[in-house]
Each structure stands twice: as C-alpha cells, then as structure tokens.
Amino acid sequence: MQARMKKYPLAEEEIHVLLDTEPVGRLASMGGDGFPYITPVHFVFFQGQIFIHGLAVGEKLTNIKKDSRVGFEVEKMLGLVHDDKLPCDTNTTYESVIIRGRAALVEDSALKLAVLDAFVAKYAPHHTGRVYPESMLKMTGLIAIDGAILYRKICSA
C-alpha cells in the first residue's frame, strides 16, 4: 500500500457513503486473451458486499466463470490542487475504495430480488415497489463480489 494511502485513510462511514452514493465503479476481470478487462458498471453496496447487475450473458460474466478473481474500484474526485509556480505540479484530491476479491453469479432468487430492489432505490427510486417482469429477471445477471477493502484513501495523486 502506498504511503499516502496509509496517511489518509477513509473512516468506515466515509467508505460506506462513497459506495452508497457514487453511481459508477470499475470492474476488472481477466479476459480470455490474457489481458485485464475493465468496464464501468452500476453497483450497489448491500449487506457488506458489492453487487453488479447487467445482462445474463457477456464478456465480464464469461471472464468470471473462467477466473473468479476480480478487482473493483470507485472514486470521487474532490478537486485539483495547483502549484502557482510550477506548471507540471498539479495534483488531484480524491476519495477512493479499491477491492480485490472473488466474483460469482447470484442464483438465489430471494437475494436477487432484494439486491435488485437496492439498485432501484439507488438509481430509480421513483420505481420503488414495482414488480419486475419475469422476462427481465431472466435476462438480468447479478454478480456478487466477496472481497476485502484493500485501499481506502483520500489523498492527492
């Protein structure tokens, strides 16, 4: 872990706020060609885990089925810090959370519905309480990341 990350850690509550409010995270998986595959995703932090939804088929799911090891990152840029005298000395102040773990497709229907409700509450609260069409449930894939928060920081880049 970088020294700056140790010097400026986020408190547990700040981590939860960041995970509850930021709309986009990045999921990294190992691609079939041996290169990392990183994609922006919508996510929720629910019952202490990161959940990602999308179609029930696709590259990220194919990758996870072959190798469940993933990385997940979310950040919030707070601003730029400029040096008045040096043009190349510009830094960024931000908060971020980085997680390494294992991902799996959620098969439990009760958990899937509870997590989808959390997605609706975060991204489309005006649809809260509505019933999901069965066809939509069948085509929706839900990924759970079981991992540890490795880095939590607020610092300048």
Number of helices: 5
Radius of gyration of CA atoms, rounded to a whole number: 18 Å
How many extended strands?
7
Query: In terms of per-residue confidence, which ranges show pLDDT below 50 for 5 or more consecutive residues?
Result: none
How would a crystallographer describe the biggest sheet?
7 strands, antiparallel
The secondary-structure element order is HHEEEEHEEHHE
Mean pLDDT: 88
What's the arrangement of strands in the largest beta sheet? 2-1-5-6-7-4-3
Q: Give the overall shape.
A: globular
Descriptors for this entry?
single chain; 157 residues; alpha+beta; 5 helices; globular
How would you characterize the overall build of this protein?
The protein is an alpha+beta fold. Helices cover 28% and strands 45% of the residues. It contains 5 helices and 7 strands. It has helices spanning 3-7, 12-21, 59-66, 109-123, 134-139, and strands spanning 25-30, 36-41, 43-46, 49-55, 69-82, 90-105, 140-156. A 7-stranded antiparallel beta sheet has the order 2-1-5-6-7-4-3. A hairpin with a 5-residue loop joins β1 and β2. The chain is globular and about 60 Å long. The model has no long low-confidence stretch (mean pLDDT 88).
What topology emerges from the helices and strands here?
Layout: H1 3-7, H2 12-21, E1 25-30, E2 36-41, E3 43-46, E4 49-55, H3 59-66, E5 69-82, E6 90-105, H4 109-123, H5 134-139, E7 140-156
Antiparallel strand pairs: 1-2, 1-5, 3-4, 4-7, 5-6, 6-7
Concise synopsis of the structure shown:
With 157 residues, this protein is an alpha+beta fold. The chain has helices at 3-7, 12-21, 59-66, 109-123, 134-139, and strands at 25-30, 36-41, 43-46, 49-55, 69-82, 90-105, 140-156. A seven-stranded antiparallel beta sheet has the order 2-1-5-6-7-4-3.
